[in-house]
Design brief:
The chain has 75 residues and is mainly alpha-helical. Helices cover 48% and strands 11% of the residues. It is built from 3 helices and 2 strands, in the order αααββ. The chain has a two-stranded antiparallel sheet with strand order 1-2. A hairpin with a 5-residue loop joins β1 and β2. α1 packs across α3 and α2 packs across α3.
Length: 75
């Protein structure tokens, strides 16, 4: 049996949600509502995913997060 941490599980859920609609940007609040992961955890994970080059972020009124590359290229 493979055991993963809760943060790894939540990160996978967030990445899967972003991969479902790769052309769209999502705010952290939208991802919280769609995944039911606590808001503070979503923000923390998005910061880590951005630091590792898995998601891109755009600041401002029409900002948000999206995958940094096509879903098929993320292993």
């Amino acid at each position: 049996m493979l055991r993963i941490s809760r943060l790894t599980d939540y990160g996978t859920v967030i990445l899967a949600r972003l991969a479902a609609t790769p052309q769209r940007q999502f705010t952290a609040a939208e991802l919280t509502g769609l995944t039911r992961v606590p808001a503070a955890t979503v923000r923390k994970l998005l910061k880590q995913l951005h630091a590792h080059g898995l998601v891109d972020s755009t600041r401002g009124l029409h900002g948000g997060y999206r995958l940094a590359r096509p879903p098929a290229q993320i292993t």
